[in-house]
Amino acid sequence: MAHKLFLLFLISAILTGRSYSGSIAIYWGQNSKEGTLADTCATGRFAYVNIAFLCVLGNNQTETLDLDDHCDPYTNGCTGLANDILACQSKGVKVMVSIGGGDGSYSLISSEDAKNVAQYLWDNYLGGKSPSRPFSDAVLDGIDFDIEGGSPLH
After folding, report:
1. Which of 34, 63, 112, 148 is catalytic?
2. pLDDT tens string 126-147
């Protein structure tokens, strides 16, 4: 009986040691009182930070990045976030842009529209070289799709 209890304890210890606790994600950018992006990453609490939200895209609309009062991407006011993004990444935190959100206006009207949106995301947030990148030359780690409505097409 004792060896069965020991074996159960050993298996529990192994499974606990291999758990992926600490892989918490947070949305950042919708509350001006939440502090800076760099401060959020410096807490050590998060493995992923989703910059939220790119809330208007597709359907021939002008893409709209809404970061509350943190910055205005349309006057190049968010280029300063590049240093915060790099600070987060240097701590091992993955930084992504979140598209959609509850109040978002997004839809894809065709396969061509979907390709255009994908190209826009690549050029402006990932490895592309658009001259109008909202976060300057900072390259994000990915895209978070927070799609809460729309059509399953495209």
Report:
1. 148
2. 999 999 999 999 999 999 998 8
